[in-house]
Amino acid sequence: MAFTAPTVPTVANLIDGQWVDGSGTDTLTVLNPGTGQVLTSFRSSTAEDVDRAVAAARAAQPGWAALSARQRSEALHAISVEFASRLSEFIGLEVLDAGKPLTAATEEELPDIADSVRHFAGAARVLSGQAAGEYVAGTTTFIRREPLGVVAGVTPWNYPLWQAVWKIMPSLAAGNTVVIKPAEITPLSTVAFAALAQQHLPAGVLNIVNGQGSVVGAALAGHPGVDLVSFTGSTATGRNIAAAAAQNPNRAILELGGNAPVIVFDDVDIDSAAESIVGAALYNAGQECMAATRLIIADTVADRFLEAVVDNLKKVTLGDPTDEHTTLGPLISAEQLDRVEKLIANRPTSSTVLCGGNRPDRPGFYLEPTLISGLSQDDDLIQQEIFGPVMTAQTFSDESEAVALANGVDFGLAGSVWTRDIGRGMRVVNALNYGNVWINNHLVVAPDLPIGGFNSSGYGKEGGQLGIEEFTRVKQIGISLT
Ligand code: NAD
């Protein structure tokens, strides 16, 4: 598999079907994280640009909502067909802009995004609800599911196109119009997707505004013309978004950070569990909100299990994402690399780095795959989201201690339990305060299934029927029978 360099799109705003530069005064640059070199630059946007995009979306919404579910679905399926036929361009953009290893992007991430586009194109044709009936004597009542109006999407850099698609497609399918704000360091694939989608949509149905989060994202979250803000990003920004949205109030979906626990009991097949868990820890260089980061291992097998983890970490091929042999690409930016390195450097003296921990001597923003043991529950490496190719290890002596360690953080996005005892597996996942839990697996994601966290990982669901329903409002209609 050879890397084909894509055409880097011009980053501009799409407002009411027209491509226009942002009206801000700053120039923002987009870097290739694999080399540190500049890919392109663009003008920042202002709150006035956001006003224009929201006005365009609001004006286009009644016409889009008036189409039948079938008509909207047909337009979205046309996007799906064209996207699937041009997948290699999007693979190239995600490799260059987000540092995705070519093989993972080609075999997993981009085909999965194409599947998501296809799934959401049809999903709003089968909305469900409570049966009509005489819940009050003399009146037949039924519910109607309506679009909300204008949905604002604010996306992160770790899955730039994936996140944009999971917001744009279900929102449009349900009859909303959309304004999307990509992460300013990874706008390329979303801009290219909007250009593709625009050919199949009426003007104003899909709009895009590029720029800083504190300006564009903040203006969108609190905008009186927006009905729902769907945000994926850090917990700190999620708090700002929720506060801004509360002013109107706008509805909010918050898909925030995580630091997933991985509980390993003493009855697992050590080699196969270690291999699967390392794969789920290092996917996307660990910049994955559900990454299998936090090992919590039965003390009777901990040494053997950690040896197997180290063996697997040593098999990783760190390198240029455009090389098909690379299995571990760079972190997204110098800032992200610094942040992760500081967490490692500030580890307690009682801890041990069993593998990695260093920045390799090469351009770009790379970090060796790392495993750190000997940590306590209140250490930053346990309490904070690391968001890099770093795993931590703690041990437990019984089931209740394992659950307490797993639940003993503020986050609540994802976690897994590894055991051959299915009753124990069920007991433990039932006790976990996490929105996505797996037994003998980790990172099971599909557009058919709802994703969403608890606690500091946010609220609301993306994906599945619940994820479509988030982009609708329910109206109760009662008809007198007299
Ligand atoms: P971030 O919060 O820094 O930025 C996310 C987006 O918010 C960007 O578009 C940014 O420009 C914008 N933004 C920044 N400040 C803002 C403000 N004050 N108001 C409005 N918008 C603002 O997050 P990031 O660093 O880009 O992404 C990584 C984070 O995303 C991690 O914490 C990760 O766990 C999380 N994430 C969560 C999920 C999930 O499904 N729960 C999925 C992917 C990523």
Automatic annotation (TrEMBL):
InterPro entries with a match to the protein in the record: Ald_DH/histidinol_DH, Ald_DH_C, Ald_DH_CS_CYS, Ald_DH_CS_GLU, Ald_DH_N, Aldehyde_DH_dom
Gene3D superfamilies the record matches: Aldehyde Dehydrogenase, Chain A, domain 1, Aldehyde Dehydrogenase, Chain A, domain 2
Family matches, as PROSITE patterns: ALDEHYDE_DEHYDR_CYS, ALDEHYDE_DEHYDR_GLU
Domain of life assignment: Bacteria
Assigned keywords, A-Z: Oxidoreductase
Catalytic residue list: 255
Domain Aldehyde dehydrogenase span(s) in chain numbering: 19-477
SUPFAM superfamilies on file: ALDH-like
Record family assignment: Belongs to the aldehyde dehydrogenase family.
UniProt protein name: Aldehyde dehydrogenase family protein
Gene source species: Mycolicibacterium komossense
